[in-house]
Every structure is written in structure tokens, then in C-alpha cells.
Fold each of these.
Amino acid sequence: MPAPALPAVRTAAPGTAESGSRTASESRKLPQHAPLVVATRDGLAESVHYGSAVATAPDGSILATAGDPLAPFYPRSSLKPLQAVAMVRAGLKLPADLLALTAASHSGGPKHRGGTQLILAMHGLAVEDLENSTDLPYGTCEREDWLRSGFHATQLTQNCSGKHAAMAATCVINGWPVKGYLDPSHPLQQLIAATVTELTGEMPFTRSTDGCGTPLFALTLRGMARAFGAIAAAAAAESTSDDGGAAPLLAEAAVGLAMRQHPDMVAGERRDVTELMRLLPGAVAKDGFEGVQLVGLPDGRAVAVKISDGGDRARMPATVLVLEALGVDTAPLAGIGTAPVLGGGHQVGLLRATDFLSKPVNEAL
């Protein structure tokens, strides 16, 4: 049954209390998400996470879908590898571990904080030049250690600080103003916008601002999967190249290889994205707030998942099921593809993906 049209309300200027409200002329409907993940307790479905998913071929064509993979959504932090590609194209040159940090939603541990400071120092910058928001470390253990030490939320510990340090560094390299580097009209953000359009093959449906302050683009799951497939394939081609490293790396290859080689810098220890890249050789993976997961495979295929309620726990089980449907050996991913539901300290149920790819692909896509 089609979802009801959203009610019309009056508009407001960006940044006001009513920012993001719908105009009277808008006739968009709620995305037609499908049930992707269910949590059962003693045989009863206790919670159901709806969402959409897509698997794409190396050429970006659709191999399998669930829900509404062409509905615009905000990729959130899964945009970071694309932003990193733009910066490498603009002349950013970093060791692989620091380039991985550029594409990171890091846990805020010592190596993440130290790496961010090193990027800044390499380009004559300081933490005061960062324009991201403040936050406590994202990782649970890292946050607890930080708080026990008596520290508070900072820009350095915010999970996007590596990306912001790289953005400021890219400005220095190109002679662009560092102050105001987040403004959508800034040359850096103009370059990033063009790169995102190129890699996804899509013009943004709309634009907003991410939690850390960077410009954010509404795209489709298909477009984001296309981009990740290209990054992973470029990295795979470079890793098997016999030129001895004489030719300069394609930006997509440089970013993909850095993420593959240093997944702990992309996320952190005890993070499922880190484990996926360690357990699935050649994969390039990135999560995003509000239940987003992207995975590019070395052959150029890719998977994109969006959980409609933003539930983080449902992101990886849905992703693993799509990977399995593509013929990927997901046995090593069993630990992140499901999770036990506990009662009294004992398992009484399971969080698992539904068989949401059982229906044929919609030929209209």
C-alpha cells in the first residue's frame, strides 16, 4: 500500500528552528522501505528494522534490490572516502595510515588523535584551525578513558577530525583560505561536490550540513554503491599492478588502498567496519550515522544499505546478507552478521537479516 503523502507546511530559512520543513509544493512520499532485520525473543519477532539495500555491478547497474534504493538519502560519513578522493586529486599527499584517517569516523584513540595532530603539523596548522564540531571520542572504551582522565569534548576527539585536518591541509597546499573551508562556495567544497557527482554519477537531490559541519549531499544508494565499487576496483587494480610503483597512484586507488591497509584508522578496534575489512580481503567499507553502510568489492561490485530508523545494530546484518547473495564467502563475517538477544544473561533470541532479497529485482529500476 503506498505511503501517504507528507503534509505540507510553510517554509523557513536554513538554520532557523523550522529549517528542513516541507514546502506546499513538495509531493514526495515516504521511502518504500522493506523489513530487513528482525530481533526475535523466544521465537517472537520483538523488533523489526526496515530499510533499503542495493547491490551493483562494476558498471553501476543494479544486481539486486530491497525496499527503495533510488530514494534520496543522506550518506553521512560514508561520503568521507569520496571527499578524500577529491583531496588527493587536489594534491594532498599523506602516508597511507594518515590518508585512511582522512576517510575515517575514528574512535578517538591516541593513534587517531595523534594522527590528526600530525596532519596539521605537517602543513603548519594547529587544532585551532579545525572548523568541525566538538565531541567526546566515539569509541566506548576511548570515551571512558578520556572522561576518566578528566577531559571534555573537543574538536580533536570528534570522530571527523582527521578529515577536517586533511581539508585544512589541502587548502594550504593549494593556497586557498583555511578559514571558512566548510563554506559550500569555498574552492575545496566546490571540488568535493564535483568529485561526488562524478563518482556517483548523480547530481545531489538536495544539500544540507553534516553533524561535523561539512556540506552534505542527498544521493541514492545506487549512486553511492557505484562510487564505492569504483574505489575498491581501483585499489585492487593497483595492488596487482606490475609497474613497481613507478606511476603515480590514481586518487581512488590511493584512498582505497589506505583504507584496506589501515582499517583501524578508518574506524578503530572493536568496530564492525574494521573487522569487515580485516576479514574480507580487498573490501573497502565505510559506515555512516543513521544506519548507513557501504562496501566496495575488489571486482567493482558494491553493496549499499540504509536502515530507515537509523538503527546502527541493523546495518551490518543487512549488509552481510547482501554480500552473501553476491556469492561472497561470508562465513568469516558470522560474528558481525548476527547478534544474540539476551535474557537473564543467556541467549534467548537472535538479531538477524530477513530474506529480503528473495524477490526478483524490479525491472523498472
Note: The two ends are 19 Å apart (CA to CA).
Amino acid sequence: MEKTTYKVKLVALMGVLTGMLIMTGCKQQASMGGPPTAGTPEVGVITITTAPVTLTIELPGRTSPHMLAEVRPQVGGIILKRLFTEGSDVKAGQILYQIDPATYQAAHTSAKAALARAEANLTTVRLKADRFRELVAIKAVSQQEYDDVSALLKQVEADVAVSQAAVDTARINLDYTSVKAPISGRIGRSTVTDGALVTANQAAPMATIQQLDPVYVDVTQSSAEILRLKRNLANGEIKGKNGTQAKVKLLLEDGSAYPQEGTLKLSEVAVEQETGSVTLRALFPNPDQLLLSGMFVRAILEEGTKEDAILVPQRGVSRNPAGNAMVMVVGAEEKVEPRVIKVSQTIGDNWLVSDGLKAGDRVILEGIQKARPGTAVKAIPFDSKPDAPAAVKK
């Protein structure tokens, strides 16, 4: 009986406690006025500012030597000796090949002998002409005889001049048997060996010399881009370099930056009809011979400076169904507004905005999924604000 009474009392106590808990919960819910409501969503924003930015454009190109010379013989003969190491640096005037000089030495000696004979004959005729000049004055010889001697003197003087020219030609040909470097630079492989027969002014070069310090970089730019640049300079959207030579930087084939800075030297005056592009040429120092002829590179050219550039991080820019770039901004009454913008080029992680934003606008970068157009939000500064780089690349 005592156990049964205890169980009854325990069940009754549990029922009373359960009822009290239910009543307490109902009172709390009534005091709160229903289920809890969400607060105003927070979004991270940046405030748009303007700053001067140097505009650049990246163009593909190839390197070419500053000077290029193909070595060819100017006289024919057998190569006795090659006097350089392939791939080495040579100096202008350095002897590269020695052609057998025997026949040219003999021709030079023969020409000198002919000159000596002509000079000896000239001495005799000149003395005779001097004597006849005195004799004709006293009528000891006729005028005709004096005229004949005078004409013979001029003929012998001409023979001496011809002989002197023959000596000079023979000496030049003899000198040409030593094939010399026309310029200083790095010489490539030799196409002939000792014992090879070469001919004067042959089509195939014996070797090629390239001067690679400094080195040219030839790049192409579309004519439309050149027109856009000139238009922007004319209307003041960007400022030029006040007549100074434009600076050029270089990216190598592996994507690394070339340590030396170059300058823009010339622009072609005509557009290539096949490609619609214009060739630009820049000059780079190349003291370590890092740049070789024919290498593919990308040149970064300075276009000018935009004084009031607006940069927006790419993470804050999306596209609408029409494909136009747009951002979400916090507008009047702290409500979200969609804004269509125009972007011209990327700058690392940023877009360069040409229209649609102004200084003071607040662009949403974080919490965009909560930012529905027309909804009220709480704007807080975004932690990582974009840095305005010193150079802009296309």
C-alpha cells in the first residue's frame, strides 16, 4: 500500500511541474509578441575616390638586333683559316677568315711594276717637252713638233694614272683576302670551313654578326587603338608625357619581368593593310645578352596619365542579363540600388570605370547576397580596400 501511495504522489507532482512549465512558456511568448524577427542586414562597402593613374597597354612583339651584318667575301679563293670562335663576340675590323692571297699578291706586284714603267716613261717625255718649249721659242723646232710632244706628255701622264689605279685595285683585292668583321657584335655559326671555295659577293653568307646591346623590340598596335589614344589626348581625358620619350617595360616568354627599362623610338607612318596594325619600335639596353634575336615578348607601353581615375574591385562588379557591367550601391535612405557602369580595362583585381560612378558613391563588396534592390541595409567599411596601382595594363 505504501509503495502504491508513493507512486501516485510522484505522478501527481510531475503533472503539476509540467503544467507550470507550459504556463511559463506561454507567458514568455505572449510578452515577446510572437516569434523573433531578423535585424537590418550589414554589407561591406567602399567609398569611391578618384586618383591619378598612369595608363599602359600591353602588346605582343619580338626582339631584333640593333645592327645586323652578313659576312660575304668580296674576292674569290680558297679559305686557308677561320680565325674566330663561333658564338663569340667580335670587334669591327677583326679578321674572321683568311683567303689564299697568292694570286692577288702577284697581281699587286705586277701592277706596281707597270706603274714604275709608266713613271719612268713620264720622266723622259716631260724632259723632252721642256726642251721643245725652249726650242720653239727660238724657232729651232717647228710648232707641230712641240704640239706632238705636249700631247705625248699628256698621254703618258694618263698612263701613269691608269697604272696607279691598277695598283690601288690590286692592293684592295689583296686586302679583301683577309675577311674582316664589318661591325662589332656576336657572331653565329660559320657556313664554311677551311679549304672551302668562296666567290666574290656570293648569295650565301659565310657568317652573321648581330649587335644585341642595345636591342630592338618591335610590337604591333591596332590602328583603332591609336585613334582612341589620340582622341583621349585631344579631349584631355588623359595627359601625355610633355614630349619626353615614352617608357616601355618588358615581360619575357616565361612571364617574368625584364630588369631593364626601354624607350619608344619610332612608329611606322603607314598602316599594314593585311592586319590593320601599326608597328612600334622600342630600344632596350641588353648588357647581359639576356634578350636574343627573335624572342617573343610582351611590351608594356605608357600611354599617359588619367588624373581622375575611378577603380572598383572586380569582386563588386557583376553582369546583368544584357551583359552590361553593374554594381550594387548604397543610395538614399540607406537602400540598395543597382547601378549600370562602363568599364574600360582591368587593373590587376580592379576595373577602371569610365562611366556610371562618381566620387562618394558607396559600392557593396561584401554581403551582396543580402543586398536586394530596394532593401534597407547597414553599410560598414569593407576591410580590404583596393589599392590604386601606379600603372594600368590592358
Note: Residues 1-8, 24-37, 384-393 have pLDDT under 50 and may be disordered.
Amino acid sequence: MLPRVIVVTGPTASGKTAAAVELCRRIGGEVVSADSMQVYRGMDIGTAKPTIEERKGIPHHLIDVADPRLPFSVADFVALARPALRDILHRGLVPVICGGTGQYISALVDELVFHSAPPDPNVRARLLEEAERNGGAAMLARLAGIDPEAAARLHPNDRKRILRALEVFETTGEIVTEMNRRSRSAPREFDFRTFVLDPDRPSLYHRCDLRVGRMVELGLEDEVRRLEEGGVPRSAIAMQAIGYKEMAAHLAGECAREEGIEAIRQATRQYAKRQLTWFRAMKDATWLDASTAGPDSVAESIADGIVT
């Protein structure tokens, strides 16, 4: 039998972090974060990075592993995540993947093999310049002409993945979709059990609004200011994250503070909808109603589902 790995995912503010921690306490597990922005050091408030208190003594892997001035790809994530899974299993514990970045989770669950396509600084710089000049929609349209299947999974605002797909094609002559298709035929290493937390929409959007309010109270504006003062440019991939981009616009005098905060609220709700769309395409996932259930109840449901 393949070693079992549990995936706890769901849209932003669905309560997956607390549920994953409680699950780890029940089954003897450790968390492997699957959040594309919690990897960055110094980005704590805007990413809702779990505090030491919220982790409740459960080790969390793949948090604070990247410099926000530099890009971090799904291939980088997988290269760190797989050894973390093996290490946790080797110590007799259960890996619990927790996060809402659908592409990270799909790459792990599908056990994609990333072929050698190292970043090309010249190609990347040119694509970044073109994206700044023409916008995400134009770059996505270009990708659709090359790799329509990959383009259909992406949003025009997902500049990082659009540009990476274009870069891979320009440097290798292969499309990402074909690389992924080839890798899925490789032997499996893990038995993944995926659980998606699914609050009803009014509850989800209310939680999103509460989360944004809490981030502002905790000092999101100051966090963005510290990042900029520390040398992280607005053009960095990390600064395109929801909350950071809008607050950076406010700090640059491009919008009023409350206008920026409202833009964060709207972007957060829209992101939650896109996440749910991605998760619905995942095969063999178990969906759990998380509208009113607390983390203990959700963890119990997942623990029961693991043995059935």
C-alpha cells in the first residue's frame, strides 16, 4: 500500500488551517503548507500566516522559505514539498497538506514531474515588461493560442503562472499541458485523500470580509510599507498578492485608504470563487459543509473519512 497523505483545502477563510491543526493533534500529523504566499518571509498579516499560538505545537513546513523579492514557482513548491512528505512519513507521522493554492495542491496530488526548464532571466524580464505594458488579459490570450488547456485554468490576474507557462514554451518549445500529461503516467508514490471545506456562500463572504478587517487592524498597511522599505518592489510577484497590491496602491497615493480596503474585500471574495471552481475539477475529493462546523467537528469528519 502507498503511504497516505491527507489534503485539507478550501477557499480562503473557510477554516482549513484550524481544522488541519486539530486533525494533526488527533492522528499524529504535521502540516505541509500549500499556500503560494505564505512561503514568503515577512508577509505574515496579508497572507493570514498561522501564528505560533494558532499552530498549537504542530510543526508547519514550507512557511517562510522564500525571499519576497524573488519569484517562487509551483515547481519550487513541489521540489520542497515532496521531501517534506517523505521526512514526515519516515518519522512515523501523517503529512497533512493544508492550503488553498489549487495549482500547488494539484501538482502534488497528480504527482507532476517538472522537466528541466530553468528560468531564463532575459526571457522573464521581457515577458514581465510586456505584461506591464499590455496587461494580463493580453498575455493570457497569447498563452491560449499556444496552450489553450493551460490558459483555460488561469485568470488574467494570475500573472505569475501565465508568464511562467509562456517562458517554459519559449525556452523549451514544449507546452506545460503536455509536460503535465506525460508526468501523470509515472508510477505513484503517495495515496492522497483530499477533503474540501465548503461553507455556504453568505458565510464564506462574511468570513472573507471579517478576515480583511482583521488584517487591516493587525497592521497590513505597515507590513506593506516595511516590505517596500526593505527593497521589495511593487513589480515583484509577491507584491501582486491580494491585499499587498491594493495597499501598495494606496501608499503610492493612487487611491484612498478605504478605497483600497474595499478593493481587497472584493478581490478576496472573487478569489474564493475562483478557488472553488478549481477544486470542483479535482477528482476523488470529499466535500465537507463548513458553514457552521468548527475545527473540532471538521477534523472529526476528516478523521472518520480517512478510515472509510
Note: Strands lie at 4-9, 29-33, 60-61, 94-98, 191-198, 285-289.
Amino acid sequence: MRYNTLGRSGVTVSSLCLGAMMFGKDGNPDHDDCVRIVHAALDAGINFVDTADVYGYGESEEILGKALRGRRDDVVVATKCHHPMSDEVLNRRGSSRSWIGRACEDSLRRLGTDHIDLYQVHRPDPLTDIDETLGALSDLVHQGKVRMIGCCTFPPSEIVESQWVAERRGHVRFRTNQPPYSIFVRGIERESLPVCQKYGMGVLTWSPLNSGWLTGRYRRGVENPVSPRALIAMNRPRDEFERFFGKPRPVYPGLHDYDLPQNQRKLDIVESLLALAAEAGMPLVHLAVAFTLAHPAVTSSIIGPRTMDQLLGQLPAADLDLPSDVLDAIDRLVPPGTDLNLGEAGYLPPELTDPAKRRRPPR
């Protein structure tokens, strides 16, 4: 396992970070098995774990709390707040002072710890002034409940604004950013990664396998691993989906729908990547994860295994250095700074998602 300094924080973390989103009812409901996965990751040299309160509505944090008993002091623990933790109580969400304090206390309790090493804002909050958010987070740092703060999937303009506000108002500043990054989602190379480097921020990237697309499971001529029933339901309204399946609708509708043009392009590129990986003497999974670690701005790549086999299948990527000719070939398939599907960039501002933001009101 290789290790890097998390930006200019002085904290050393493994180049692979264990993501816990799949621990619990949304992935692996067997708590004991999840604990075994955590222990195997720690035994392999991973000292960095990432979760969020919204993963299983606290279940993921509870599992991590069980797994880290007796080993807490050796692990850098990261979690997040922001996403709704209730469909009924409107203020149990967001990045306001009133919610951040309570969310942190809830996470500390579930994790069974007296401090969080890295507390992150899960997404930008257009309803809350960043000064309010940074002030609340700074108080948590001063109280000793949080060691560092970070942001997740913030666009470069909001990263710059947060750094400026922190300096101007005397707040603790974001030490990290957590954006999506993979061969298929390279948009952060344009500005986000250079901005993070400029401000000395660590970068922990998520979804290096692009939700399974870069495992080789999704191919032309191979039956889609996602059931047709799920594909049909992915475009149903949220409430209808939950009645139909008994669980929340997937984050990105149609993510694995072969009929969508962007996924047709992925199917083509996957075949070229499989050939490239074979020529380089490695599985596609290793190629995909190692690609994210090749960028000098990336501190750690988050892997999110659901099973022990998935964990063991990704660990070797930490020690791989992709040669220039392989990286050049990837650049030809997916040009630098390109997102094959804009919807997978992790965050789209209201100006793109709300038509009212782009249209003058009738006179």
C-alpha cells in the first residue's frame, strides 16, 4: 500500500480509501460480513475510511463503528452531512448551522467515537450562505469534535469562494474535496483538480469504476447484469419506484440502460479498454483504479466494495504505475476533461437543473 499526505494537512493516508456506502441495507445487509471487509482492508494497509450519515440512514456509520472498536486510533475516519435524513422533518438536511451541529453529534454517536477526522459537506447548498456553513464547521473543530473539514463534489467556483470566505471571516477552511473521477468521468481535470492543487487541498475521488462500467461486466453481447425490471423502473417517479421496489430510486436513472446514446458509447470504449488492459497485463478493474491514482492532484481513490471478493480484487491497483503509453491510449479513447455523461458529474447547479433559472418571467 502506498501513502500520501492529505493536501497540506500533514495527515498521511493510504492511496486507497475504503468507502462504506455499500455497507447496510443498500448493499450488503450482513453486518458481520461488512466488519470482516473493514478488517481485511485495514490489514492490507488501508488507514482511511469514508462514509456518510445518509448511507443507509446511519446504518453504514454504525457498521463502521463496530468494525473500528479497538482500532480507531489507527484510522483516519471521514464522514459527511447535508443530504436529507428524514422525508418528514424538513430541517434534518442541508448545510445550515442548526442542522450541522446535530448531524455531527448523531454521526459521533453512530461511529462510537469522540471525534471525526474529516467532516465533509456532501454537496453544495444553494439555500445556505457558505459563511454560515463554515462558521458552524469551524465551531466543531474548535470544540475538538472534528479535526478537519472538507467538501464533496463542489465545483471550482464554489471551492474558490469557500477559501476566500474562510480567509476573510477567520473560519477554518476546507482541507479536501471529494469529486467523482474515472476514465469515463474526467471533467474535474479541467479546473477542479488544478484549483485543489493551488489551495493545497487533498483530493479523495469516488466511483473509480464508474458504478461498475469499468469492471468489464457491462459489454456488448453480454446480458445486462441489471434486471430489465429495474431498468424499466429507473425512470419512474421516486414515490412510485419505492412502492414498486420497496427501496429508493437509484441516484442516476438509466445509469446502466444500454439503449441510451451515452451508454452505447461506453459499450464501445469498454471493449477498447479491455484490450488495452489485457495488453498491459492487468484486469480492467486494476487499470481503472490505477488511472485515478496517476493524477498528481489525487491523494486517495475511494473503493466501495460490497463483498470481500470485490475488495481483494481492487487492492492490487494501489501499487500499480500505469506507463505513459497506456495513459496516452486512454486519453485517445476519452479525451482529458471529458464527462461521457454530464449527469454523472456528481453535482449540477440549479442553473442547469431548474429551467426558471434560465428564463425571464413573463412581462
Note: The domain at 3-215+283-356 is CATH 3.20.20.100 (TIM Barrel).
